[in-house]
Amino acid sequence: MTDIYDLVVIGAGPGGYVAAIRAAQLGMRVACVESEKALGGTCLRVGCIPSKALLESSHRFHDAKHGFSGHGIKVSGVELDLPTMMSHKDTTVKGLTEGVAFLFRKNKVDRVNGFGRITSPTTVAVRADDNERTLQTRRILIATGSTPVSLKGVTVDENRIVTSTGALSFPEVPRHLIVIGAGVIGLELGSVWSRLGAKVTVLEYMDRILAGMDAEVANAAQKLLAAQGLEFQLGRRVQGATVQGNEVVVEHANAAGEVTTTRGDRLLVSTGRRPFTDGLGLDAVGVKLDGRGRVEVDGQFQTNVKGVFAIGDVIRGPMLAHKAEDEGVAAAEIMATGHGHVNYAAIPAVVYTFPEVASVGKTEEELNAEGVPYKKGSFPFKANGRAKAQRATEGFTKILVHEKTDRILGAHIIGPQAGDLIQEIALAIEFEGSSEDVARTSHAHPSLSEVVREAALATQGRAIHN
Amino acid sequence: MSFNLVVPPVGESVVEVTISEWQRKEGDFVDKDELVVTLDSEKTSFELPAPQAGVIKKIFKKAGETAPIGAVLAELEPGARPAAATPPTKPAAAPAAPAATLPPLSQPPAAAVGAGMAAAPVNPAARSLAAQHEVDLGAVTGTGRGGRVLKEDVQRTIETRSIPAPAPVVAPAPAPRPTGDRAERVVKMTPLRRTVAARLVQVQNEAAILTTFNEVDMSGVMALRERYKEKFTEKHGIKLGFMSFFVKAAIEALKAFPAVNAEIRGDSMVYKEFYDIGVAVGGGKGLVVPVVRDADKLSFAALEKTIAEYGKRARENKISMEELQGGTFTISNGGVYGSMLSTPILNPPQTGILGMHNIIERPVGVNGQIVLRPMMYLALSYDHRAIDGREAVQFLIRIKECIESPERLLLEV
Predict the structure, then answer these.
(1) Helix H segments across B353-388?
(2) DSSP code at position A145
(3) Chain B closest CA to A6's CA: distance in Å?
(4) Active site residues of B
(5) Given CA atoms B134, B135, B136, B137 in this order, what sign does their dihedral have?
(6) Distance CA B160, CA B15 (A)
(7) CA-to-CA dists, residue B198 to B14, B191, B209, angstroms
(8) Regions of chain B with pLDDT less than 50
């Protein structure tokens, strides 16, 4: 008798592996197909996790050199040991990817190594080396994620010209790192190498950084990062890049078409990511894509082909690991019980620069465009005791509420631990709370979270410490 | 765990409804989405379905009573249909079931757990606001997940409670009662009348309403109509009326003066690049203004058919809330009741409303001669905050031109 799975998940990134585990918890017989040797997908292997390891290490290095003196700690002879820093990163990644393998065993999810291709709504062919085997299944979940988009005139060799993957493993600190794209990845990795001593030039096509995030916050981020040494050249259209020995030469033009040449020794292309469906066999079974190459799904994450589902970066919505996880859980629950839940209005997004930039819900620009009447309350970290003690007083918290009902519509934070502070507002939005609900909740003193409460009070013009 | 049937938020300005008729009685079983009760709101009637299957345990509001948005109308006990009348059953959702018994793929989402349970959680700001205004939290229906009471739910309760029975304009000192037979009859205003009243006062307070007039010689349109009325009816199965001409003429004028097809939103002027024209039609409950969507894309015949269909449905009170909302400009016609001249009131947030009136033969001077012509007075009420006087006057002249020489509509000149 052939084994028939209840669910075959293609892709073991944060969306896919979480969906597989949740489905197994709900009693399904599940296989998860992954072509990489390590589980965890882009996020664990070459994305969120290794970049956070480097951001943390490089921040400590930078802090030791520049931040300690202000606290009265004299250090001398601070030296970078890049191989050890890289091995800390690798150990972090290894621990987590092996953790996923352990969770698969614990939950009896069959891990199938190889490249998965859908051959019918109930079969997935898996090719590993030169062998191909076919899995029989009742349902298929596409969780193949995304891959960096390429830029015309720029050929990635993952040595001199790299994507985020290469920029996580430079053999030495670049002398001059050129970054194309002032999005999350460009700013995070640009920060890492800048702290470690590289000159960093960021070329951005738009006239602002962090497109899509709240403009006031993005503007503040640009100023703070520029003060740290990142050079921003906005409104630049990159026309091409060539490797000349150990140099990379980038040609870019302004709006008027005037071409400038920038020379560096490494080039990071971080201009965005596209859904990854190459070789997945979607044509063969007729799974529909939208105009931007994303797999079309309904409210239940089902594609136009019955029994074939999709979640994460490969479908609509922000390309965020936690969004994919939430969808993975919801999709598994929908398959097993008929209902699951993802609240797209309450998905936080974080940029792990220093200070961090975090956001949840609507931006001011979105509310203006939608004509929603709103009030805002802002509060600066410089008036917060804990931030002062940390000597991390840059930034502010901004909360946006409906003018009439006081319902929280969005929050935007730039400041120390913004990525953790934003979670309070995500929870408040999930509970359909008002700024007064947040303000009435006790906040420990002295803590950074007091800034969130003061911003909530400020929407009513009632901030205490400002 | 029982669940409640509550009055849903039906529209921006609707604050309460009247219970028209219960389709089911206490003790009856109702299926999910089965219609349970008919409610009347300001301008329309609608039927409320059961949020999930169950048996009606208790009905709190009888037919004829009013209830605010969010009020509990009935309490239901979830359960399966009694065995006798069992329809083909769907398998119940079985979370954590072994693989062999997984529900089929096509199974619809299981119903959410009932809202409005007795001890619904209350958000802190809602609790505080309720205390300040002495609102009984037990009487507030939470609209948050799981029946959670939000600050806005308490706000709504307070607002509903404090809506003044409008216009006790001046509570007059009890006048000396005239002697003799001077009987009075006190009739409570319907929710419709009260909402209309509140809205009318509101727009008068907020907008700077001004009216400009003109007159239009209808002989051109009448001649055209006379010439083609039989052919038109034959071809399209509908009579060629005046309304289609006025809608077309109004759209020509709106295109020329975009500020009339606009609204004020905060500090901004919002210009609408679509033409959803509200057309007043007489209904069973008075004049209603259903909206003809994308009227600029409709032919004369399509306009006449749409308006006639609205007229028919208005007489049957079958016009839905959505059909009354979101117009960008309104055409009112007091002429059908014989009005000679009026100053219509804006339909917020619109900035303009055209008033049509009766057609009367009046002596007018034409080429030095006094002749009788079928004339109609036109009125444009407008929000002077958004529209300049010059624009308003020229807007009306543009309509006059298009009606007096209907061929202009064809040539767009």
Answers:
(1) none
(2) -
(3) 7
(4) 384, 388
(5) negative
(6) 6
(7) 11, 10, 17
(8) 83-101, 103-118, 165-169, 171
Cis peptide before B258 (omega within 30 of 0): no
Q: Could you tell me if A295 and A310 are in contact, meaning their C-beta atoms sit under 8 angstroms apart?
A: yes
Output the six-digit token pair for A172. Answer: 């030495």
Which of B19, B323, B7 lies closest to B191, judged by CA?
B19
| Euclidean distance between CA atoms B241 and B222, whole angstroms | 9
Containing A248, the helix (H) or strand (E) segment is strand A247-253
Measuring CA to CA, how many Å separate A339 from each of A301, B112, B361? Answer: 11, 9, 68
ipTM computed for the complex: 0.71
> Which structure tokens are listed for B124?
């802190």
From the number of C-beta atoms within 10 Å of its C-beta (0-12, 13-18, 19+), residue A77 rates as exposed
Measure CA A409 to chain center: 22
Question: How do residues A174-214 score in pLDDT, each as one tens digit?
Answer: 999 999 999 999 999 999 999 999 999 999 999 999 999 99
User: Chain A: residue nearest B92 by CA?
Assistant: A337
* Global confidence as pTM: 0.61
- Write down the residue that tokens 């906005």 correspond to: A234
Question: Does the beta carbon of A3 lie under 8 angstroms from any beta carbon of chain B?
Answer: no
pLDDT of residue B144: 86
Q: If you average pLDDT over residues A317-326, what whole number do you get?
A: 97
Tell me if A241 sits within 8 A of A157, measured CB to CB.
Answer: no
As given in the structure block, the two tokens for residue B254 are 């709106």
- CB-based contact (8 Å) between A306 and chain B? yes
- How many angstroms away from the CA of A405 is the closest CA of chain B? 5
**What residues contact residue B312 under an 8 Å CB cut-off, 6+ apart?**
none
A140, containing H or E segment:
strand A140-142
Q: Which pLDDT score, from 0 to 100, does residue B101 have?
A: 45
The residue to which tokens 């969120």 are assigned: A48
The number of beta carbons lying within 10 Å of the beta carbon of residue A273 is 19
Assess A26–B contact: CB distance below 8 Å, yes or no. yes
User: Which residue in A66, A71, A445, A465 is the catalytic one?
Assistant: A445
> 3-state DSSP call for residue B406?
coil
Residues 6+ apart with CB under 8 A from A342: A323, A326, A327, A330
Burial of B46 (0-12, 13-18, 19+ CB in 10 A): middle
pLDDT of residue B276: 95
Distances (CA, A) of B109 to A27, A256, A330, B413: 18, 55, 12, 56
A445 given a catalytic annotation = yes
Asked whether A334 and A340 are in contact (CB, 8 A), the reply is yes
Q: Using CB atoms, which residue from A25, A432, A436 is nearest to B148? A: A432
* B151 to B126, B164, B351: CA distances (angstroms): 4, 22, 33
Nearest by CB: B99 against A28, A433, A437:
A28
B105 and A306 within 8 Å at the Cβ level: the answer is yes
User: In degrees to the nearest 10, what's the CA dihedral of B49, B54, B56, B58?
Assistant: -110
Cβ contacts of residue B268 below 8 Å, gap of 6+? Answer: none
Closest to A6 (Cβ–Cβ): which among B99, B128, B148?
B99
Q: Which amino acid is at A18?
A: V
Beta bridge partner(s), residue A432: none
- Asked if B395 contacts B260 with a C-beta cutoff of 8 angstroms, the reply is yes
Q: Do A338 and B155 touch (CB under 8 A)?
A: no
Q: Find all residues with CB under 8 Å of A447, minimum gap 6, and list them.
A: A386
Residue A351 neighbours by CB under 8 Å, 6+ apart: A184, A187, A188, A210, A213, A221, A357, A358
| Residues B65-113: tens digit of each pLDDT | 888 877 888 888 887 665 444 344 444 444 443 444 454 444 333 333 3
Residue of B nearest to A139 (CA): B105
